[in-house]
Amino acid sequence: MQYTHPIYFLAFLPIMLLVYMLCPQKKRWFALLLASYSFFYIISRHLIVYLLFTTISIYVIGLWIEKIQLKRDELIKSCERTERKLIKKHYKQKQLKIVVLGSILQIGLLVVLKYSNFLTVNFNHILHTTIPMMKFLVPIGISFYTLQAVSYLIDIYHEKIKADHHLGRLALYMSFFPQLMEGPICRYEQTAMVLFEGKKIDFQNARFG
Fold this sequence. Notes:
mainly alpha
């Protein structure tokens, strides 16, 4: 199902908008999440496990980074001023290792699924080897949601945002169906809370899409 497909315009989108408008405001985020995962499943079927893996992994890693930041802040409060700089540096390095690990995990999965054949062909050509190519099915929007996942972790590392303790809100940010196939890549602070608030659809919003 593409955005230009009649089923999308005549069935999926109208039903989703109707359910969204009928839901209480506090539950509208769940309607969007359900629509997003339904959209993903209709196109990619069981490959939805990759989206689930990415979402859950960055959720856990984000909380891990936040835990280190809280521990750092507690130590800073109880130490001498001369020691604070060393403590900050030490804990910054710990956070960086986790962010690098999380980023490699996300980007590594993207590379394996989407670019393994390209890399294998070039590797065989350059080194005259005969490594067999492996075929992987690629879920929709993997490039978009992978880069969003990495930006989320980096923003927590730089303390631009706090790690989200609400798994549903993070899942909605990662899977929001209008941007899965076309983008753009959005920062967490730009879209997560707006989607979660469940604002009323008015004429002006509908007019500009």
